[in-house]
Design a protein that fits this description.
Elements: E1 6-12, H1 18-31, E2 36-40, H2 46-54, H3 62-86, E3 90-94, H4 97-107, H5 113-119, E4 128-133, H6 136-142, H7 154-171, E5 174-177, H8 182-197
Parallel strand pairs: 1-3, 1-4, 2-3, 4-5
Helix pairs in contact: 1-8, 2-3, 3-4, 4-7
Bound molecules: thymidine-5'-diphosphate (TYD).
Length: 198
């Protein structure tokens, strides 16, 4: 078993495949002998469960969403991610701070990137962030469950996509386009991660 802590985040617009690719990446890294802990946001704690409920409710103020996502993350990082990293796991998080920066600032003009960073300032930063990119038109058409959450709207997701790409360039994140065969997309993600692991 290899002990090699690394904090990886897969982020991106709805339907880009963060969940599918996080699972595939976990399997791949385990097959290489690494200890891997897979997690996601909203997390499994009580705030995360409340947030899943609020994703169906358009009347919740964007500021409330932002504060709850930050609280969820604080608990998630200090109660789970940090411990796993200290135990030598590779932690893969399906979404993290970048989701808040993008979604909540697109949700409301009042919400700035700086404010999101401020309310998230006590959690650890990922070592590697990979942004999965897809045209929202394709992403929404792919959805098998046609009940939509509040962010699954074409106009909103086009803004989300634009901001992910702008921020990725600014922050030097990797961008992987996911409009291709799953195996090929996953291979690109694996190559980025293996290069980082040296
Ligand atoms: P989820 O179903 O996990 O996303 P996916 O469809 O990619 O599997 O839903 C998470 C939703 O929550 C997604 O629309 C993005 C949103 N979100 C935020 O708005 N802010 C955040 O900080 C996080 C973590 C997620």
């Amino acid at each position: 078993m290899k002990y090699n802590s690394l904090f990886i985040v897969l982020d991106g617009g709805d339907g880009a495949g963060t969940t599918t690719h996080s699972h595939l990446l976990k399997g791949f890294l385990e097959s290489k002998g690494f200890k891997v802990h897979l997690t996601q946001e909203p997390s499994g704690n009580k705030i995360g469960i409340l947030l899943r409920e609020y994703l169906k409710n358009k009347d919740i103020p964007a500021t409330t969403d932002a504060l709850l996502f930050a609280a969820d993350r604080d608990l998630h990082y200090h109660g789970e991610i940090k411990n796993k990293l200290e135990e030598g796991y590779i932690v893969i998080s399906d979404r993290y701070i970048e989701s808040s920066i993008i979604y909540q600032s697109v949700q409301s003009e009042k919400i700035t990137v700086d404010w999101i960073k401020k309310i998230n300032k006590f959690v650890g930063k990922p070592n590697l962030t990979i942004i999965l990119d897809i045209d929202p038109k394709i992403a929404l058409a792919r959805k098998s469950d046609k009940t939509l959450e509040k962010f699954e709207d074409l106009e909103f997701l086009n803004k989300v996509r634009h901001l992910y790409l702008t921020r990725a360039e600014l922050e030097g994140y990797y961008i992987v386009n996911t409009d291709d065969i799953i195996e090929l997309v996953q291979e690109k993600i694996q190559n980025i991660v293996m290069a980082k692991l040296g």
